[in-house]
């Protein structure tokens, strides 16, 4: 279970060490056992990272004991001991974490990165060995423990009897009389002079409930405050507590309790001391009796905290219901109730209760505690602006509470205000150098700054103090994986799940790690676990993303070639305010229009993705830069292609968080064969610039600019055979800029604003033997404006938007006498609204669109010199007038990976490259790949997703649609007269190896006037082994042209039968090999059905390889139709990153 916030001096600070009363020290015996171990006098064997009460240390030899201090380094051979009602935490040189209970004595015989030798003379300790493989030995008076990993608890009583409990990993417990091998949930007991024995424990973690953070200030209760006039007995207790004389204070308190004097504060203070002494169950029993006797609500709140700390959540729920009935407005009880709901993943209820606690708080201390709890809950939900405001108020009210500073620092780091975070951390650690919240925040800060080693050290310190701090375990996993310690990373994620069993985030991170490591089956299993826990998701904000959506739950499936399965998971986990959903879906769509739409929505949500690396898994956003270079070569049936690019991308957050990308590239093409007069050379150099900025936690900005010049020429000239030749060169220049802004009002509300402007110009000169030089000029200008606001409340979603695109294209062919200019205009604007409502397993969708699209064409025949029209001007135009276009849908979730979807869609395709409106109704996409600018489509579809088992997924769909395009008077489509000014949003993403399957079998441009299309699909995705998958799909299509004069013909490009089969093999890490076979039946490539494509098979082979350090990568493909005489297409790409 996760821990509630350490938010107040008046509240328990969760899970404290158990003190073990021992009869005597065994120093002389311990010194003898350590003999023979060479000591390195200048080495550091361990550091004291936490100290509660009193501890003492001494260097090797017989020197006197000296008081221990926080952050004190201990050398090899040093002794460390804790006194009564005291405890300590150590971090060893090999990253082993150790917690010592009261009256424990430990000698560090040797502690090096390669080997650790310890001796426990008396008392109790808990340890977690991070080194893999572990090489740690612990000597006790009765036995030697040889530790293989990972965490264990050992106790030595006054007779030397040793009890060792293994929570995870393996330990051998042996002496001269025998040995036992201990595994998880097993306990070994060794007494002096007897062989060790072992037994099985039902719940071994009950043994280590003492291992957690220390209580807060023991004098925090009102009766102990200086402003209070305390009775002499309480004044004496206060003095003892302030002096650190806890044993004396406990004796005085016990006397007062026996006499019935002092009131509830006596029982509260005794409960604190019992927690310090490792008796949380006794403490909660004491507080239960105190509540019955005094009805002081502080005792009820304290017991609720303890019950949650003991993982007794049902009992805590009953207790809270009873106690709150008696004290409904007591702020600490409200806060305890809020903590309970937060632990249960009920975020909305928790926030409401925290706010009630703030309202009912009495005094600065209670108000600060409630605000700190509210701030943490808001931060976990991703509402950083409100979280930082609440935490700032908590700090202002109680500036002496290090935990509040630590939470404020954590929120500042999440908001990428790293300088502010550093200030808050300095304040926290000056006040309390062993505050685990601040230490964990220091680790997160180091991660953001790209220093994984420093992050790991800080997080290990925090987690030896409070092992059940779930968020810190996730951060530790990221640090460990970044440093190449995969096993340690997975171990940390496992502990995060133990701390918060309902949170899907640790499972989602594990899916990313395992997929990145080349373990697709384990990654899929982790993704499935995350999917089942999505109702308890706090926020996806902690996860970084890249432009492939690597954090998406469907990523492991998509990279393993199981595309249908991946889409089902992506649909089930779709979240419109998280960039990872948009980026992953972008690669799932067959339509380039839909893909660009999702990419722009992703960059609006998180523009820092511009700086994401393609060399490492994007786990948490961190500072860094990366150079990349690539070169590719292709030989197809018609030509040779070659490309080269160099890029520099990165992210920095020193003052204002900024991500950037600068890239230069060039494309070269030349024909494969043919006569000299058909030989050409084409080049297309270009520059791409991208910038993403986060000025504050609410505002995100991005700028994307592309500038490309395409040049081609025929060295030997080109003769058209009609007296016209082309002997010069031609040039097309394209320049486009996209600007976007997003304002996050809260975790559940965001507004997007985007504009773009682009211009394309072309020019060439043809030589006409009769009329002289023919000068051709072309220019196209496009401007777009897009707005969208999305708000979520609970499981419901509502988006509203408006968008408009204007495009003007002019072209002309001129000679000295005649000019024939043509002008085309397109005007498009559309308001829209889309809602989604969820109730149980059902999701309902209702959307309304009100587009207007007009297009006009003007052709002139004019005198070049005067501009006077020599023939009547020809005007033509068409329009989709304003009318309401509905989209309706419903989904029934039948389990993880199982759902039934239905949709009715009416749409008009926008003339630009993208839209910010939805491109799918639930899981059913608008088929923009079949539409041109201005196309009207009406589609109805039903789809079944069915995860049959952990190894098999079935899918089926049935759809029908009518499509119509705007047709000019001459029969030509208006959409053929202009072309979109393509942006570079789809090409700036880093190239990452994956075995994604292309399901799009449509190969033609959908040029037709009107038509009907019906499609039925069945598919299966299946795991054949840990690294081997197979996909099969069959598509049956019936198409019919309904245009005038073409009735009954097939629509171009649609075959009656299409069969697709692919098998994928995943190698280590991200490397893969795949084979794909596709059968396409007979189809036509033109609307009139005059050009027929023969049926047949096509084959595709692909292999991707990446070096171990991920600097080098290679991808190669072979594609060919299995027909006699057809030559294959070969393509290869080599990339280097540093």
Largest sheet: 28 strands, antiparallel
Cα separation of the termini: 41 Å
* Uncertain stretches of 5 or more adjacent residues: 1-33
Average pLDDT taken over every residue? 90
Q: What percentage of amino acids are in beta strands?
A: 35-45%
Helices, by number, come to 23
Give helix % range.
Answer: 25-40%
Rg calc:
35 Å
Write down the CATH class of the domain at 27-208.
Mainly Beta
CATH topology of the domain at 27-208: Jelly Rolls
Inertia-based shape: elongated
What's the β-strand tally?
Answer: 47
User: Based on helices, strands and strand pairing, what is the structural class?
Assistant: alpha+beta
Named CATH architecture of the domain at 27-208:
Sandwich
